[in-house]
Amino acid sequence: MSILSPGSKCHLCSLVDFLPFICPTCNLVYCQQHISSNLHTCTQQQLDQSTSIDRPGKLERGKTICEMKGCDRESIESIGGFVAEGEGEGIAREVRCRGCGGAYCVEHRSQSTHSCTAPLDHNVRHDAFLERRDKAREIISQRFPDFRDRVIPKPPPGKDVVKTQSVKTQTQRKEDNRTTELSKSSSGSGSGEGICQDNAAVDQLKPKIKSKADRLWDIHLKKIRMTAEPLLKLARNDSMTERVFFEWTMDLMQIQENVRKWKESGKWSGGKLERGWVDCDMPIGKMLDLITGRGKIKRSEDQSQSLHLLSLYPAPDEERQVIQLELSKSAKMIPQGSLVVLVRGGWNQGI
């Protein structure tokens, strides 16, 4: 077998090309240079016949004008592709008028713009809908005679209800009635004590306006509830029992200097505070064991070095309170949002 047997020789030169080009018109073999050169007369004649005089190198698409009288715009099928007979006509038909089949421009494409002789397309669809509806009614009357003449009433048109400021709620009406009754009773009784009692009752009905300290305390409680973790690791988060949310830390110095500074300034300077929660029915003694285990603190046999829990509660607009918690009671006695501190020797104000 020869080395040159896989290839083919060019028709115009002696080059043997292993990837030859075959002309689709004359079916002769050419190399890469002669498949589109001037020496290849087949392609030259084809180019001369297909190119336009005005625009050399561009194929003549067969431009057609809109069939609407007086319109000189190019039709949609002419813009879309070649419109010669037998070539590309299937593609162009898709953009012609469905009624008369004429070729129109974009402006005169719809049936109403070029005076189409065929029935309007939307009328045909509506007629088909009416025909389907009549057939459905005929079937219903045959199989369900009780519903033959049934007419489904249309719902009434909706109206926007505009609430004016004069409309009062039921609770506001009750409050107004109660205030009027109190005012009548106060006018009927001539004693000054009755008037004072009625004024106090009216003041209770008014909504309480929170002070700045109350609002700051509410924000503090929300932060604790959002980031608190259970003090007992095996506690269920989906428990329905009431919980106590608090912050906790340790101050194991005998003099309890950090606790005293907090009572004076309201700020804790003894290190990082942890946030946690427990069920209200958990004993405080168990809380002491859990905090001791978290801190890995050793217990002492000396009674003066025994461990206790203190509750530091900064009540809004009141004096700060330091309460020593009794180990036998439940956690519900701890105020929400307070600071629980583990100390040695208990709380002694005289130190």
TrEMBL record:
Keywords from the UniProt entry: Metal-binding, Zinc, Zinc-finger
GO cellular component, one term: cytoplasm
GO molecular function, one term: zinc ion binding
InterPro entries from the UniProt entry: AN1-like_Znf (IPR035896), Znf_AN1 (IPR000058)
Name this polypeptide is given: AN1-type domain-containing protein
Region (Disordered): 147-199
Keyword Zinc on entry: yes
Residue spans of biased composition, Basic and acidic residues class: 172-181
Domain (AN1-type) ranges: 10-47, 66-121
